[in-house]
## 1
Amino acid sequence: MKYDLKKLTLDEKITLLCGTDRWHTYDAHGKLPVLHLSDGPSGLRKEDENDQTVSATAMPTISTLANTWSREMAKLDGETIADDCLENNVDVLLAPGVNMKRTPLCGRNFEYFSEDPFLAGTLAKEYIDGVQSKGVGTSLKHYCANNCETERLYQTSEVDERTLREIYLSAFEIALKAQPYTVMCSYNLINGVYAAENTKYLKNYLRDEFGFNGLIVSDWGAYRSAYRSIIATLDLVMPYCDKHFDNVKQALEKGLITEEQIDFCVQNVLNLLERCESKKEITTTKEQRHENAVKIAEEGIVLLKNEGALPLKNGKILVSGTYSENPPLGGGGSSYVKTDYKQKTLYTLLNDTLGNGYSVDYANVNLFSLGQTERTQIACRKAYDSDTVILCVGDDGAVEFEGADRKDIKLSPYHENFILNVAKYNKNVVVVLYAGSAIDMSAWIDKVNAVVLAGYSGEGVNESVANILSGKVSPSGKLSETYPLNLESCNVGRNAVDLCERYTEGVFIGYRYYDTYGVPVLFPFGHGLSYATFEYSNLTVTKLGETDFEISYDVTNTSNVDAKEVSQIYVKDVFCAVTRPEKELKGFSKDLILAGQTKRIVQKLDYRSFAYYNLALEKWHVENGDFEIMVGASVSDIRLKAKISIERDESTQKSVY
Ligand code: GLC
């Protein structure tokens, strides 16, 4: 090892276990290099020595990245942000977050991938690979069961063992395959013990069972007791805490902790120092990073509804709505990125992109001189004279932000009324929606022709939306979370009550609930339309081993438009001794399929594709019997189905009826 623990005094070792300020580690009187840790998931947020935020590329948020369903885009996202980190001497990027979207109310859902751990973990792994391929570290966060923001520093997540393993730990397990430099523990308590001092989940699970050998860092201000944190093997407390040194020293003198336990954490800090010394070269220019932001946004935008208005037809097109000039690039909180990129407005870009035969007009409803009524009247009058109206509405960082949850999932009354009023005067309204989590559209969805989910998609959002509306690019995004009909139809909605969030729904979150119990939704998990049409055929299932199978099938682009398609594989355990969801996502592939082309897609299923966590056996268990393999364009649009039977050795089974 390059940095020898023996050369540090006891005081230096104790001091090394806490940051020296908000972002830096301790240098042990010049014996060690100093690391700089910085947010965040949708681009670099670095505060310089004057506490000024440096400019960086504002990438799409993780929720938009998830809607790409693209391993390639996830890796590109990580690589792109890493270049901004290299340019600004940042050693560890505090991202990505893989917390499950358990309720659409969670204020930080825009920072998270999905309601499904397989999708979240798979994309997070690629993102981490992307960042770390450049020698910049990551921080897989927030470990764990941090699924609401209400009272997040004091809230207990009360989760049964099976639910924890199958839903709330599973994405971490998958993402750990990328060997993140660090894991960040969350603020909340997990089953009654603060995550920062929870030996069961930090040491017994994360380190001993999942094999994580990197550094565990606290969320900022998440630590409670210095010695209990060290016993739980939390290595680094952030940010600086003036009581930390004395607390650890006193605990050592009282015999509450040993120097060996301190040394274990110190060694993890020294290992991180060394791991952060293999930085690579910057390979992108600022312009290329911007282009990457556009590319990822294009693949993450989801065409939710389209009754023919898109791609835009010749004629008079009106652009209006609060966000038609400056749409929100992200949600609020520590993931904010300061970009100095000046986007052209959607109106200007459409003018530039669309050819002859189009005329694009703009109803600017953002003039401070206008009252709400006047704003709406301007838009309505112009809408009446237009062939198609594009309305840019949604939420922003004042609605979806870290530290608080939404109370509802509808748009503001102003935006709802704006849509309803304009729709009285034009039958071809295209709503471009900015949001980081599910929106209840029941008040207006039947009044509009098309809905494009632009999400919170960074500094390239206007370009990507213009390219999709114009038909230059076919939309290929798909929902990574269910859009329910309304909040009342969600099985998980309430925020933390008396500080205890009881996960009584068990594994049945998101589509695992709606699809299993036949609860109607507005748009299902995995849904997203295209300008192309696709047919699925020739499903073949080849047994490679006891629980290893190769799944192959054809997807044909039956249109005259080149486009990408996300095909999804779901597994059903037909008869099981415990209740299991009707379907569980266990594979997906995003493929460019040219007009008229047929592509053969091959995916693999393994033990964990069929297993559930059996509490009596205390392990992941595959029960002998029948399974269904389903291939679909969404969880509700199953195109192909096959049945298989798994017969493992009798000794692996428990007695059945
Ligand atoms: C915040 C967030 C965490 C972030 C950290 C540093 O409270 O929970 O995601 O990385 O503090 O800003």
## 2
Amino acid sequence: MTCILGIETSCDETAASVVQDGLAARSNVIASQHQLHREYGGVVPEIASRAHLERISDIIEQALDDAGVSMSDIDAVAVGNRPGLIGSLLVGVSAAKSIAWSMGKPLIGVDHVQAHLYAAAIALPGKEVPPPLSYPALGLVVSGGHSSLYHVSGPCDAVTIGSTIDDAVGEAYDKAAVILDAGYPGGPKLDKLAQQGDASQVDPLPRSMLDADSLNFSFSGLKTALLYRVRGKPQGRGSDTTFLKSAADHSPEELANLAAAFQQAAVDAVIKKIERALDQLSAKNQPAQCLIVGGGVSANSALRRRSLELGEARDLPVHLPPMPLCVDNAAMIAGLAHHLLINGQCDTLDLPALATSKRGR
Ligand code: KG4
Ligand code: ZN
């Protein structure tokens, strides 16, 4: 049996969790910073890292308390050390190193994106362990920083087969929410607004499919189309650009319908690429045994529904994380670290925090 303490501070959630055997979260503590960033309309890195610093010790203590364990019961300390905001990552990495050094525990650096692909394997405290992930799988990470498809051959093994050429889908949601004045945080607010609207009441927004066999994503055209639909054609150029209209010039019904049209176009594009990827893997005699979805946008109501429908139509198991494990959390970090620990992939105290996914060792 392993009992791993996970720490996650890559962006704007300070999180800690204790996970047993890589499957059962005994605690899952997440302190969101939405309130702190709301007035700026996005994450301010300096505010994020300061807030992590103020909160990290209490969050770790609470995760141990909730799990009913003490530091000496822990087999290893895992931390998301890449990719992310460097000042934010450094807080978690420093905390993990201090614990590992002072308690004499193994230290494990975990790739945050790979951890999103493992979140669906984990049971929340008091819940039943979900059906096991089977490999090889098609993986989809849709978050504020990533829209990528992976050929996943094991928990620690994912090869990128498609990614965004511009905005990540979560980023597009966040920007679209600003355009529609839907509130902050943008993704969940827009999702809620879209559920009140009817996409068929407005002209469809574009779905960017790129080349016929491309597994890459592009969301900037969709975002710009929505911008022009809401604000009208831009006047002037560069920093002098102005718009004749704003969200305030549209009725609440119209804004909800546009949100629904945005959601339909964004999710259509993602589903289409999943289908393409499944077909391409089958054509290469590497058929996926299942679809694993992770990242903040896996909380999206339309994406969850459409990916389950796709699974049913193709007789393919679809693994979606429970809602609290869609967004950034430390259970996915501790869960994946179980596999790294049993593979002997531990780190030394010079583990770096890295802004990108490159391992750097
Ligand atoms: O995985 P995550 O917490 O952080 C990153 O690793 O980026 O993902 C955050 C992203 C944000 O862009 C947020 O707006 C989006 O996930 N998100 C959603 C929903 N919930 C969160 N996007 C669409 N619909 C949602 N329900
Ligand atoms: Zn994330």
## 3
Amino acid sequence: MVIRILPDEVASQIAAGEVVERPASVVKELIENSLDSGAKAIVIRVEEAGRRMIEVTDNGAGIPNGEIAMAVARHATSKLASAEDLASIVTLGFRGEALASIGSVSQMVITSMGQGDQHGMILRVEGGVIGKPEPAATSPGTQVRVESLFYNVPARLKFLKTEATERRNIDAVVSRYAVAYPEVRFTLEQDGKVTLQTTGGGDRREALSVLYEARVVRQMLEINSNYPESGIHITGLVSPTSETKGNRSGLTFYVNRRLVQDNSLATAVIQAYHTLIMVGRFPFGALFVDIPADRVDVNVHPAKAEVRFRDSAEVFSAVQRAVRRGLLSYSTVPSIEQHFPTPQEVEPGRGFEIPQAGFPFSDSGSIAARNDALPRSAADLPGVLESVPMLRLIGQIGNSYLVAEGPDGLYLVDQHAAHERVLYEQMMRQRGERGNSQQLLSPAVVEISGESYRLVLDQLPNLAELGFEVEEFGPGAFVVRAVPTLLSGLEPERALRVLIEDFEEDESPLEGEHERKIIARVCKRAAVKAGQALSAAEQKALLQNLEGCQAPRTCPHGRPTMIHISLGVLERQFGRKGAL
Ligand code: ADP
Ligand code: MG
């Protein structure tokens, strides 16, 4: 074969493949152009999931009459003049590739009128062949109409998913940009039906209802943290701990309002929820990372969906801290109010049993009197706006649950989950301190093989922090000289094995993640079990310790430690108020 330079159309088509992978990529590029032009309203019309037609119309600055032919040339942009400008990009576009790429794989018509123009211009591009611009009657702004996408690239067509999937992809792009630009009015019409519409009213939470149900949006938690050292500002809305998803796809990230894909940011958020939601469940939400333009490289990929941070650890940590902070200030007790079965729903004989004896709720006057004294002020606890209220112990039931009275009704506390939480926070605090370790009278040799051996080896420094004194003792064996005080009741071998039993192998465990899992595991092992009778003093101490926790409402594995039954619910159930 002879080496030759590819004809221009072929080169364009190859380049187009990187920018325009599917109809949703066309929609994304055209929306970005409209946003860059300062549009306040954007209408997107799509037919047959974009294969037949995609049309984006905006009321932005428009393209000046004389420049319309330039706009469709490859590497032609009004957003960038020199290489230095690349370091300070504030627009969504900058590569000057989108219109050229789209035009090379479709039949495209651009109609636009610039701000100073008397009339508009129209320009057709077909399979990369650029027509002659002609005057046209139009209003200020731009319309790009793309028909028969990929008509000249059959290979691309073959790779498209079903119409339903492509339609969902388009919906996802538009809704995600609608969330990021609540001040812009978005309308999406698919096959003649409006499937998405925002008001352009500027409220982020309101715009978020294009992604989630209104009921969920109302409960979402606002994140807002500033890190002046790095110039990073994190804002957004994330799911409350009571709402989760089965995978991480519900997390959307924006860097300087650009929609980006970044797995590590998602991991940062997931870590922030660690111990607050169940293992295997995931949070969702929209997070905005604002960072000085010179600290992020947006020119990593032709589709501009990825970015590279100058200091990614710094961004990771900012996101994680911001979300964690938001979560701790909002966490709420799961309330029985939402799940309380009505008598009709309860099978006879299997009702929600409420013990009859020993409940001092008959005298509602005394409860009201206690109300002002009881709630603990949020300000008492640094960094925690709302904690559990001060609880008055009533007793233990089923050797498993503590019953307590709070300012508004009854609290049932799972003694095992609560104790796990208490031990977990204690251990996190006491890492590396003296006195958290118990020397063994005679060192024990423990044989551990394979994966587990490497895990222990990797975790030796963390184990030491936790109070283990463990050394490698030839391949496949360790000698244990001391164990954490919490585990001193166990055989040394058991104590070490507790940590590694069915240790879930993460794809890539992150800094600190293993340690936290190990601690959670130790605590699970050391916590009082369900079915264990506790003395009154032990019950009381457990409640008090729980009140002192930073995240008292969940155990380290994310299960609730307590259930609240409000006085209102009790009154309704007894038919005193709002009778059923
Ligand atoms: P880029 O966005 O990277 O500059 P594009 O190929 O997407 O490259 O667009 C080329 C140029 O066409 C832009 O720089 C801009 O000047 C102009 N343009 C494209 N779309 C619009 C629009 N909707 N409104 C105003 N100008 C536009
Ligand atoms: Mg562009």
